[in-house]
Every structure is written in structure tokens, then in C-alpha cells.
Amino acid sequence: MQRHRPVRATAAAVAAFLFLGGCGSATGAPPGPSPEAAAGRAGPAEPLAPAREPSAADTRLLERAEQVLISRCMDRRGFPYAVTEAPDATGRSFPYGVDDVEWARAHGYGGRDERAAARAREADPNQRYFRGLSASGRAAARAALMGSAPVGLSATAPTGMTITASAEGCIADAQRTLYGDLATWFRVKVVTMNLRPVREARVHEDRQYADAVGQWAACMRAAGRPYPDPDASRQAAGRFGENMAPAEADAAEAELAVVEATCATGTPLARVSQALDHTYGERLRARHQEEIALRWRLQNGALPTARRVCAPHGSQEHSTDAHDTAPKPRSSGGSHA
Amino acid sequence: MRKFRTLLLAGALAVPLLAVPATVTAAGAATAGTSTAADASTGADASGAAADGNYWVWEDTSRGGHSCGWSGNDSDWRTCGAGGNFNMNDRASSWWNNGYAGSFGDVRVYENINYGGASTCAPNGGAGNVPWEWNDRISSHKWVNNCGF
Q1: Is residue B4, in this structure, part of any structural domain at all?
Q2: How far apart are CA B132 and CA B57, in angstroms?
Q3: Which residues of B touch A138 (CB under 8 A)?
Q4: Which residues are registered as beta bridge partners of A155?
Q5: What is the CATH number of the domain that holds B93?
Q6: Average pLDDT by stretches of 10, chain A with 337 residues
């Protein structure tokens, strides 16, 4: 199979990220599969785990454990897969218009931050590895990771979108190992990950928001920026790059964003949209409390498994020799960063 | 917002969705930020042709008709594909998130150009038809770590 050639070519870069990903431990190769993982253990570890929101550290542990499990699974299938840590924040979002003047001065609408995030994604070792594969290699690697077709799991998001995914592949296996009931995990994940979009849509549809936008637009008109709503100004800013050099476009973007934010804070828009966001957020949490609680229970129930997966000396086997001989860089610096 | 430009490949719309799989996969060697357009007659379809690590959308339900695939973000779906000569703005009816990444694997799609308006989130590996209230309304997308709640 062609896929082995690119594997070797990128093994060092991938291994560098693998060691970073040892669940907070940089002591050596990631541990091999736990007995639970190897046996494809079914059923949540703690069906009655508490329905309280996991701490940020616990959430990171779960994300990391999932990545480690995916990596081991891919390794067994002949594909290197780097455990990477997602950046903490990809910039603030202002769904109701920019309303922080200082932030606007520094970031505009966040266009530069967006480009940095896109570059980070491009530099992701898995992305780089994947792009280096032949067409057939890519198809095989992708199928190993997420199953051959997006069927088997199905859930409807509160946005109205029904989303399906494969119950096979290494992502599904990893989540099954952690959360036990994959179908339920998929459902609560799809529902909860879409609460933020629904919340923003509710605010946009609210009469109070429309009224506040009207006042904001009057302020903008007076400032020589006659945009009917924050969406229009954001779109206009996005077009600056079409006929300006990047630095010039960034400056023009920031200038417009500052006017926008000044108008948002100088009219009721900032206050009204923040209040509505809070109100609809609470309402949605109440409406979907069952899915939220179930998500938290599954997450808390998965913590013991995640800790075992991430235990520094849980190693039993490690099959790809490239990983065993690679250096152990500490940071994401290096030629691949 | 309905900013249709000239529909260049209209003749291919009637082609059934399960077309020849192999050909379009080669187009997936895109670098981040580029997009790929394909029409059904050249084979971007649900059965594996678009299984290339990109985020794909189709003009018809069940991944049929014209398609666009992106390895990166796109703030403006009016121009997708090599040469940017296909307009997917306000036209997508189904999609498949094939992102191959440990991070930034989820996709958030937006009603308006430059990530504005209503939005919805899809996890890595997810696929679906766009419901009626979303049909022919999506205009931009970005890869995200998670959509939060």
C-alpha cells in the first residue's frame, strides 16, 4: 500500500507532537491501550456520575484522552496520528456587533486572528500528514479515522439540523471507550454544541434587539458609516481585503470596528444584546437541561477511564517504531510549527 | 440575501448523486484555505469521492448536484472552486464534515458572508441535509475547536 511511504516521511514531525500529547506527561511514549480500550468496553463507567459541569481541567483531560485513544487506534491501523492540544481561545466573537472599543482598536473584527487560527490549523501535524498522502492514502486514513460513511449515528440539533455520523472508525471507538454509550454521547454532543447558535439566533429575532440595532444604525449613519446592522458592517469589513494590501485592510477594519463599538456602547445595543443573550441562554439551558445533565454525567463518568488512558506508566505496547526512537521536544517549536 | 451570480454549471444539476467515486479525490490535495468545486458529472459524491479531509457541501439534498469542498475557512461562498468560478452562496442543501484534524475539527456554518447571521455547528465526521429553514441560506463557514454552549 502506498500509504507507508508518506508515513515514514512525516514520522518524526508527527512523533514530536505525539510526545507533547502524553496527557500532560512528557516522560516518554504514550501508553498503550488499556484493557478496557482493547476490549472495547461498553457502557458508561459511572452511570450515576454527578450532573455537575466538569472543570476546565477535567474537560481538557477528556479531550486529551480522546486524542490519545484515537492516536493508538490509528497507530494499530497503520496511520500515525498526532495528539495535539487545541489552542485555548481562537479569539472573541461578537455575534451582536463589536461592543468593546479597546478590543476593536487592537483586533478590528478579528480578521487577523482568524488568519492566525487558519494558519494554526494548516500547521496541524495531522493536517500536514494527511495532505502528504496520495488520494487513495487519504481515503484510507480518513475512513480509519471516521468510518467509511457518515451513517450509524443520528441526532437532531436544536437548530433543526439532523446530523449523522459513522459509528465506526477511531473517533467513534475512542468516544465509545470513554463514554460507553456512543449513540447517547453523540446525541448530547450535537444538541449541546448547538445551543450557542440557537441562543444567538433568538437574540437576533428579538424585537428589543431590532430596536436597539435601529438606534445603533442611526449612530453609525451620523458617523458617516451608514450600515443598517452589525452584520452589514462586518461584511463590509470582510471586503476590505479585496482591494487593499493586508496591513491597510487591517487598519481600515479596525477603524470601522472602533466606530461600530463606540456606537454599540453609546446606544442601548451593547446592554440590550448582552441582557438578551443572558436571558435566552438561561432559557435554552432550562429547555435542554436533560441533555446538558446527561452530557455532564457522561463526562464525569468517563474521568476514571481518561485518567487511566493518560497515566504516564500505563504502557503495554507500542507498535510504531518511529515513535519509540523519536526525540522528545517539549514545545511545539521546530520545523513543523 | 440572495446574491446569485451566473449559474455556470446548470446542466449538471440533473445528474444522479452517486457518480463515479475516484476522480474527485485527487482534487482534495488542496492546501488550507483553498476550495474545490466539482459537479456531479465529475464525481463528487457521498460514497467516498469527497472523503478527502475537506468540508463539503452539495447543492441538492443527500449530497447530490454541484459540490464545493474546502480544507480551510471560507468567509464567502460566492466564489468556490479552482478559479473561484462557482457560486455556492445561499444554495447548499447538504454537507459532510470530513475534516482530518485533532483540533479545529468541528465546522460552524453561517447564514451570511463573513460569518454573520444565524449559524449551526457540526462535529468532525458529521453529515446531514440542511433543514428547510436553512436550505439555500448558508454563505460562509469556519473550522472551530468547539462551538461552546
Answers
A1: no
A2: 15
A3: 25, 28, 51-53, 100
A4: A163
A5: 2.60.20.10
A6: 38 39 43 41 58 93 94 96 75 89 94 82 87 90 92 93 94 97 96 93 95 98 97 91 89 97 98 98 96 96 96 51 35 32
Q: Rounded to the nearest 5 degrees, what angle is found at the Cα of A166, between the Cα atoms of A165 and A170? A: 120
> How many domains are contained in chain B?
1
Provide the ipTM.
Answer: 0.72
Residue A195 · residue A158 · CB < 8 Å: yes
Chain-centroid distance of CA A136 in Å reads 27
Tell me which H or E stretch contains B143.
Answer: strand B140-144
- Phi, psi (rounded to 5 degrees) for B97: -90, 100
Instruction: Say if B2 falls within a structural domain.
Output: no
List chain A domain ranges. 4-199+280-325
Residue B124's SS3 state is coil
Q: Taking the CA of residue A100 as centre, how many other CA atoms within 13 Å lie in the half-sphere pointing to its CB?
A: 12
Number of residues in chain B: 149
* Distance between A55 CA and the closest CA of chain B, angstroms: 14
A83: burial class by Cβ within 10 Å (0-12, 13-18, 19+)?
buried
Q: B2 pLDDT band (50/70/90 cuts)?
A: very low
CB atoms A162 and B120 under 8 Å: no
Contact A103, A34 (CB under 8 A): no
- DSSP class of residue A36 equals H
Q: Are A124 and A16 in contact (CB under 8 A)?
A: no
Per-residue pLDDT of B110-136, as tens digits, reads 888 888 877 888 888 899 887 766 667
Kindly determine whether residue B103 and residue A121, on different chains, have CB atoms separated by under 8 Å: yes
Residue-range definition of the domain harbouring residue B139: 10-144
Q: Which residue has the cell 516518554?
A: A28
**Helix runs in A147-245, H state only:** 170-179, 182-193, 195-205, 207-222, 230-239
Give contacts of A 37-56 with B, CB under 8 A.
none
Residue B126 lies in a domain: yes
Residue B1, in any domain of the structure: no
Q: Which residue has the cell 441562554?
A: A281
Q: Which of B121, B130, B132, B137 to mutate to probe the A interface, most A CBs <10 Å? A: B121
Residues 6+ apart with CB under 8 A from A253: A108, A109, A111, A237, A240
Q: Which three cell numbers stand for residue A131?
A: 495532505
Strands A162-166 and A152-156, bridge-based pairing: antiparallel
Chain B contact for A145, CB < 8 A?
Answer: yes
Cα A335 to Cα A318: distance, rounded to the nearest angstrom: 25
> Cα–Cα–Cα angle for B139, B140, B141, nearest 5°?
145
What is B110-131 written as a DSSP string? EEETTTEEEEEEE-TT-EEEPP
Q: Is the pLDDT of residue B3 over 50?
A: no
Query: Quick check: A122 and B32 CB within 8 A?
Result: yes
